[in-house]
User: Fold this.
Amino acid sequence: MANRFADWSRSLVSRSPRSVAGQVFVLQVALVVLLVAGGVLALVLQSDRDTFAEAKRRSVAVAQTFAHSPGVVAALESPDPSKILQPLTEAARKAAGVDFIVVLDTKGIRYTHPRPELIGKQFVGTIGPSLAGKVYTESVNGPLGREVQSTVPIDNADGKVVGLVSAGLRVKHVASQVTRQLPIILGAGAGALVVATAGTALVGRRLRRQTHSLAPDEMTRMYDHHDTVLHSVREGVLIVGSDGRLVLANDEARRLLELPPDVEGQLVSELSSLDPETAALLVSGREVTDEVHFAGDRLLAVNQRHTDSGGGPMGTVVTLRDSTELRAVTGRAEIARERLKLLYDAGLAIGTTLDVLRTADELAQVAVPRFADFVTVDLADAVLHGQEPAPTATDMRRTAVYGIRDDHPLYEAGRLIDFLPSTPQARGYGSGHAELVAELSTATGWHAQDPERTKNIIDYGIHTLIAAPIKARGVVLGMANFWRSQEHGPFDEEDLSLAEELVARAAVSIDNARRYTREHALAVTLQRSLLPRALPEQSALDVGFRYLPAQSGVSGDWFDVIPLSGSRVALTVGDVVGHGLHAAATMGRLRTAVHNFSSLDLPPDELLSHVDDLVGRIDQDESDTESATGIVGATCLYAIYDPVTRRCVVARAGHLAPALILPDGTVTFLDLPTGPPLGLGGLPFQTAELDLPEGAQLVLYTDGLIEDRRRDLDVGMELLRQALSGHPDRSPEESCQAVLDELLPERPKDDVALLIARTRGLPRDRIADWDVPLDPAAVAGMRDEVARKLDEWGLSEVAFSVELVLSELVTNAIRYGSEPIHVRLIHDRTLIVEVADGSNTSPHLRYAATMDEGGRGLFLVSQVAERWGTRYTPQGKVIWAEQALPEVSEESGPAAAPMAEEAPDRDGAEGAQRGGV
Assistant:
């Protein structure tokens, strides 16, 4: 116990304050606490012992008193002792203030109990000593809980034990006595503790004032530190009293201020070695932080604080720090920090786009005014077109000019410059290293470039130049010129390295923009070559169109207008999903395929079936290569308009339905059968036939016009409807522009193809048709009818060649075809002769030998007509030929003259013999 107390005391002392007063106070308090705690514990134990002794005394007295009461022995000898004794014990228990009085026989069977249900049951406790005539006290767990009980024998007149009496109290009643005494005990202990602690605190406070709360070792160290401050630290320390006298000055303060040895005690204002401003500060008493003052040739950072803030004497303490060298180092660090910040900002600001001009502007803007007053950027003219630069500094285009003022005499942007070899730009361009011209007024080589302008530049105040080559991947692309005027000092060698690093960051971005310009130009050139450059001449439709590439460049949208036989015109639009050269090349293949298949005069559904098969074969062929880039997501819409019948036949392969603008200005979207996209195969395409009034407009478009991430497809179609509605007199060109202005931003994210065609009808007086019987003799009459119609149209000049073509075609139809045979003459941009019959047999051109009797009919037709061909209809076929009108076929007369000798006679007999296929 003593050892534990000693350990505890040492621990308490070790954790106490280091001052002497603090240690004494803690020890005294600990001692008082221990004494008070011991006294309280002793009182508690004494009270507990006395309480249990009192309980024993009371239980013995009650038991003995009841055992010797008159009538108890007689009651025990009666037939029913419990009936007599139970009321007596309860009355005695209540009168004596005990918890129970129990009478029992010599075998321990209860006659009485506070709880009647326990009468007749075995007594809980020890009865042996009492049967021997002794009084026995014990603590047991009885029926009423933890009990303190005393058992006394009951003797008869002969001194024989005839029964026992047990009286007692429950333990909790005994403990309650202790509990009632405990507050008094603790209160007395707390009071003693408070009085003792207060006395200790008074003693400790007096001791703390006398020792300044310092421990002995700290007091020793305090004097050691005092000597160190005075003689060793490299910072001056002054203490100035409230009366303006110098109380203390350490060695460093004496050195910095050049104070005499006996300075302490003198008035600061009388020290001649102090600068007046410094002396005024020391006696002013105001607080300052790092205020700069001069002391001779030194630059001092002064800090001053009051000494009475912690209860000390009035006065100020001053610290002095020599910052002469530090200020120079700080200035250089600040310059380095600003340069790093400039390079960091340049990395963020330069190269935000893949545009050469924009990147050059960003380089110029980021350097003004932080590094230079003016910046000009000259790039090789070939770089602006995405090409490789020249090896010399000729054909340099000024692409960026930026400065603090706009009235400078430097070359303007856009000027083409040839730098002379003596100029710093030419030298830097050739060597690949930056050139520094510290003084422009004395640089003769620079003056030779443009003497008059260089004089104006110098007179303007520009005095120094750095010409840094814009070099990327070993190739110099141009020069960046940094100019300074009176706003800055001249450039130095450190500025030269900064300019090189700044330009190097921009050079990669400019080169990337150059490469992108080249690739983009190639892709756009490819795409433009694959799209129609001009619309063909035709009379069926008035057509307007627009094509807008996406932001990302070329892609796969396309359109076409294809003249067909019989004055008909095919309209088609298509879309290949994706962007880039592959999409553009795929678009070209599809457009070429549609153009070629249209020359066969196929219906729209058959043409799309052929294109679908072609796409499937292309995908199959490309799937066998290492870089499989099949055609995925290609769509197409194909429509044929006939101005003679004003009928339009349309089929689509996964494409959006076209819009129809009626002559009254209302707009509807055509309900067309939906076919699968190209390349899927397996499903047929279906056509829809529409009768269009003259002046109606068909609007064909790709999904880029109406689809957008910010809106649904239905919203886009409704916007298109609104843009087209209510303007029936607007031309297709005007409608195209109005739609783009309404639906699209400046640079669409997806490419857009838009085609608007207004229908025209061929006048009935420009069409003539006849039914021809299946009789060779009808050929002559047909020639006469055609000749009269040509005279009526004023086309007699071409009557001979038309009659020749008509004879051959009608003779072929009669000889090799079947009924019904029909002849139609169309007067359009050309004169079109059509002979239809009910046979599907296709004629073909042959070259007959010298001795052959036939086989020359179609050869004559091909020589006389500008074009000829065959198209199939559900009822058979149509053989057609086109003949140029007189005003556009002045040179065709001589070419047709030799055929006159072989022209058939009017009865058509020779024609019937030569017209075999």
Observations:
- The radius of gyration is 61 Å.
